[in-house]
Write a structure and sequence with these properties.
The chain contains three helices and two strands; from the N terminus they run H-E-H-H-E. The chain is globular and about 35 Å long. Helix content is about 50%, strand content about 5%. The chain is mainly α. The protein has a two-stranded antiparallel ribbon with strand order 1-2.
């Protein structure tokens, strides 16, 4: 008799699990397509991580805006440059949360991080 209870409990749990999965999938789609989102470096990120993120992102996307004389060169610091590069990568790859992971050093935000003449790309 106990087995029937376990089987029916498992059977009842299946629709709940499927509902959770569908909500999670819908939530991910809504956050990347329905709302404007950007990727920035976490303030707690260390210099080595920021450098690695900057190098990786710029090996995958065009980071010309970070060069001297371009709109996002200033402020000329690693946190700022890494954030711009990480966002360029995140935007180019479809704004999926995993495209802002960067070994847990990226942060997806709904607040536009643009500043001064540097307009963070949003596609």
């Amino acid at each position: 008799m106990a087995r029937k209870v376990e089987a029916s409990t498992s059977f009842l749990a299946l629709p709940f699990v499927l509902l959770l999965l569908s909500l999670a999938a819908g939530g991910a789609a809504a956050s990347s397509q329905g709302k404007r989102t950007w990727c920035v470096a976490k303030p707690s990120s260390d210099e080595a991580t920021l450098t690695a993120n900057l190098n990786y992102a710029c090996s995958q996307v065009d980071c010309k805006v970070l060069q001297k004389g371009y709109l996002c060169f200033y402020p000329d610091n690693l946190m700022s440059h890494a954030s711009v590069a990480m966002n360029l990568y995140y935007q180019a790859r479809g704004r999926n949360y995993w495209n802002c992971h960067f070994k847990n050093s990226g942060l997806v935000t709904i607040t536009d991080p643009s500043f001064g003449s540097c307009n963070y790309a949003y596609y």
